[in-house]
Every structure is written in C-alpha cells, then in structure tokens.
Amino acid sequence: MRLNSKFLQVLLRKVLKMGVRDQHFSSAAGLTLVRPFKPVLQHIHTFGDSVNVFHKGLLMHMNHTCTPNVEADSKAQSSQSATTALDHDSWRSFLMEQGVYCCSECIQSIKEECPSYDHVRELAELLVKAIDERIKQPSEGLRSKTRRTVLFRDLWYLFQTDDIIVDLTNETKSDNRMRKAYRVLGTHGGREYHSHTTSEYPAPNLDYLGSDPSDVMEPFCIDAYLLDFNGSHLVPIPHRLQITPYSFERDITDLELSPLEYATMETRKDLLHRGQRFVELSFLGSGLFRRFAGTTLCTEESFNERLIVDSSTYFEDHSQSSGKTEGQGTLSLNWIDQYPTYAHRLRSTERRLRMKRDEVNDNDYILCQCRCYAFRLRNLKWVQVHIWDLSNITTTEAALDRLVLPKSQKELLISRINDHQQVRTSPATVDWRNLRIVAKSPEGLMILLHGPPGTGKTATVNSVAERFGLPVYTLSCSSLGTTTEEMETRLSKHLRLAHKWDCITLLEDASLFIGRDGGYNPSFGTTVPVFMRTLEMHHGIVFLELNQSLLVDKSVRSRMHISLYYPPIDNDKKFKKIWMTFLQSMEQELNNYHVGIRVEKEDIMEYLVQAKKTYNGHHIRQAIQTITIRAKQRAKEASRKGHSPEDASDQWSSTGNSGKAKTSVIVDSVDFMRVFETILESEDKLKYLSFDEDTATEIYKRARTGEMLGLPTSIA
C-alpha cells in the first residue's frame, strides 16, 4: 500500500505515534506500507478513532483561530470553517500543537493538497476506509478464527507470536500419530521478491520466475519451537517451518500448518494425552520395561519385542547429543541468535521448565515430542520409538510351567531368585557362611547352565525372567573384546545398565572366559580372574551358558551359586513332552490368527517318534517358526481367493455355508518332514565347508547314501 499524499504521511505518523525526526518524514516518492503492516496492526482497533480525533482537532483549532462573529451561531461557524482556506500559519500552529511539525516545505505541500478542511476530511476518511478493507477486516476474521479460507498474502494475520500451530503436511494427515504442535516465535517472508539490494541481502536471481503470482512470492516462514527432553528437564527446540506460495484462496486446514483452533477436537486431545505420556516416560529415571510393536523412527525397522524405555540414560551415554533434536536447531540457538527476541524467549521458557518442572500446563503438553529413546535388549542398541507403540507387559507363570525341566531344578531356581530379590530390598540378609544375621550390601547370584546346544538353557532363562517380570539382558562374550582391558571395560558398562534396569544378565559363549583353555584365548590366564571379579562385584542375577561342560575350570565352578546340567534330548518321554509343548503353543498362536487352521498334533507326533533323527531345541524352534509363518500365508492366500486350491498336496480344504467360504488350513507331518529335510540338509553341508567345493560335494554324497564317512586320498 503506497501513500503519495504528504498529508496522509503526516497523519499516519501521528496515529502510529512515530514522533518527530530530523529528516523529512514525508516523501515525494510516496510512503509504502509493506505487509504485514505491523505498525498499523498494533493500533488497528483505535486507528479510525485516532484519525477522527486528528481531523476534528484541526476543525476545532480553526474555530478558535478564526475571527469571532457574535451574530453567527456555532453551526454556521463550523460550516464556514469547513470551507475556509487553510493558510500556512494555521497548518504550522496545528502541526506544532500535534507534535508532527517538520518544516515549511512540508507545510507548503500539505497546504496545496488540502486547501480547506473538507479536503482534509475526505483524505482522512479515504485512509480509514482503505485500512479497514485491506488490513482490519482480513486480520480480524483470521484472528477470531471465523474465516475458513485465506489468501497467501494474508497469512501474516493468521500466524502471530505465541500462537500454537499444528503440522498438517501430507505425511501427518496420513498418520495422525506423527503430528506435531509448535509455538510461534515470529514470522517473515511471504512477500514479493524485490530487486533492491544491500550488502547484507543481495538481489535474488529472478530469471526463473514465471507469470503465475505464486512464482514471484517468497515462502512464508514461521520460526517456532516444540518441547523435547534433554535428560533432566523439558527444553524448547527451535524449528524453521514454511508454507509454499499458492494462488487464490485456500482452505486453512489444507495448509502445511494451521492454528490449533482449526484442528479437530480429537487431534487436540491426542496431542494433550501424548504429551502427558511423553513427560511421564521421560522423567522416570530408572527406565521402564515395555513391549514395542511398530516401526522405529530413526532406522525404520519393524519388530515386536520387549525393550527398556529410558531417555535419561540415553543422554548420559550420549552426552554430546544432550538437548538436540535430529535435523533441527539445538539449544545453542546457533541460527536463532541473530534474533535477540527469539533467543530471550527460548531461554526464558527453558528456565521456567527447568525451575518449575512440576508445573507443566496443558499447552506445554501439546508441544511435546512424539518419540522417546529405548534400548533394544536383543541387539543392545538405542532406538527412537513412538509413544503410542509402547504397551505394558503382562507377566505369567505359564512359561515356567511349560518348561520341560525337573521339578527340583525349577524349585531351586525359584527359591534362590526369590531370596535374591528380597535381599535387594532388605537392609539385612543371611550370611550363609556363618549363619549370622549381618548388615551388608546384597551380593549377586551367578547360575551356570551347561549342556549341548538346543537343550533348553536359553529357554530356562527366558521362562524365569517371565515368571518374575524381569528383562533379559543378553550379552555374547565374544563381543567383549580380546584383551583383558577391553573385556573389563565393556562388561562393566553392560552390567551397570543391567543393574540399573533390574535385568537378568545372560552371558552366552561363556567358555571364552571360564573354560579350561579359554576357547584358545592366549590371554586366558589373566582374563579369568578379572572376568570373575567383575561378575562378583555385580549385585544382579547372572546366567552363564556353556555348550561344553567339561571345559569349565574348577575354580570357576566352585564360585557358582547354582550349576545345572542339560543332557541331550534323547529320552523318548522328554522328547515327546517338549514337542507337545511347542505344538500346543503353535496351535494357540494360529487359532488367535482368526482363521480356520487345524494342527494335527497326533499325526505330527507319530512322525517325529518314528523318525530316527534326534532334533534339539534349535531344530524345534526353527521348524515351529517356519511352519507357523507358512500356515498363516497359506490361510491368507486362501481367504483372498475365497476357495481352496484343487491341488491336494497343498493340504487345503474349504468349509462353510453359501456365500463367502471359511478357509481351513491343515498343518500335519508332511509340513514338518519338508522343513526338517531342509534344515538337516543345510547343516550337513555346513560340516564340509572347510574343504574345496568338489571334495565337500563328494563327502556329502557319501554321507547321504550311508557310506562310511572318510577323507579322499588326495587330502588324507
């Protein structure tokens, strides 16, 4: 908006309370008001009244300075004053009285524009009308949230400092869980590109601009912040957001960002509840044992497993990341320091949240992040997970009951672990060496499980953990390093986390450190004492797994609280019991899939008993997992087709009334026969991978045909 009238320039100076300056306020080239007309918006509600006061004040000034005529009434005098010419002295005295006098040159220009009061009133009314139509009406409709559409040029009125806005991009529209809310710090951009340049802001290249109005506009930028957790308290994290230029009016809810008032009530409730959940999870210092079912936000891995939620510990282990949010600004406010007002408001917000962490209000909850940090116990790595993908874990004793283990061994494990858990929360305990009650720090519990692979050692640990509702921190000894120093440092770090989260620690491949020869470890003699001392300093529960029990050093065996041996699964009774347990679990999972899947347990068991091969726990688990997945896929495919295949070898059958048929999939011995053939064939080939390809093939063929296994003459 350009004002060419020097009188209107002076009037605007008075209404906006801009005072007097040495240079001419008025300009022969006119005065341009640039969007978003911030000075005018500050006085928008009093603008019309201020203009009326100004020009009516001029009329009163003229009445007082005119020669009094006692015979004329006041109305006649006002009418006469309205048409009376305004001389130089009248303008000079009035402008000096109003505090906007500049110089004689300006007065001369104003006198030429407004020779009488009628001209003054017409120009003033024209200015008020223009401000009302171009600025006041659009801004009031958008600020009151009564308008549903907005022009790109009017976005300034829609977004203002301290407003809460919601991300409405296409990604968040398809997944409401990823929607975020921000509090506005300020806005800029949204204007036409200008050709003027300065040393600080060079002119942009306009060669690419087209005739579409949206091509010649700068993006509308919004500087805002959301709230994140830095390991100790909530902090504001600045973001720079933008809305791309567009033509014509657009529905406000179709923009990339919109004020919170335009969001649905469901969205507002979701943001509030999610923020409350975020604060709850963030301020729990010891971590939470939760089930995660979904996709991670950082690596986009999908899995369903249990993990530890503990943002505080994450920032302790990643101190250089404290206060950061991926891909955005940081608490150092590096890019935002150029805006002193922004930096001041952010630091004030952080100070309030740090000093009054218990006084988080609903608006703070709405601004909170949608993710937290969790530790995967399966691969011992930190991941970012969504708040709503976490759920509570329901513990059950059924897992331990299903475990095929002698009753005496089960009772021994339960009693010792029960005692250990009570000792941790009791100031006194029993010293078993002299049977005296002494006050001392609780000691750890080390349990040795040894036996061939696939005999139930890991299943025992998982069942015990399920029974007591404890996480299992699985650690492979081969990942602890090759030197004593590396082993001690890494093991201490893992045990510290396991103790903090009250985990059961499972050490796999323990023969590397506690076997007689240390698994051919050259530094075995110095590593064992350090390894055992580190374990003894740990106050938690530690299970050690060995696949070769004869290699256990006697000094190590004597320091174990419990030692359990797991013989090979060659007993028919135990073999049947283990397999029946797995088959029942598989049948229950398939029934929960809500399709007609029938497991022929008797047929399967008859095949397994007649088979002469010995299957260990690993074979059983692989077969169950493979057949379960295959059965679900077959049932899904049959449901999609709506009928059963004609090929009888695929074991399909279809039952039900007319209309949509109910599909039934049969799982029997044929499925297990195929899976076991594949598993055993692969394992047989792996035995000969150390030979060249021709030799391995020859040995494999001879072994499969039942010939005596021997080495060829060329390699004998």
UniProtKB/TrEMBL annotation:
InterPro entries: ATPase_AAA_core, DUF7025, P-loop_NTPase. GO terms for molecular function: ATP binding; ATP hydrolysis activity. Residues 634-646 have a biased composition (Basic and acidic residues). Residues 143-263 form the DUF7025 domain. Residues 650-660 have a biased composition (Polar residues). Pfam families: AAA (PF00004), DUF7025 (PF22942). Residues 634-660 are annotated as: Disordered. Residues 447-565 form the ATPase AAA-type core domain. This is Uncharacterized protein.
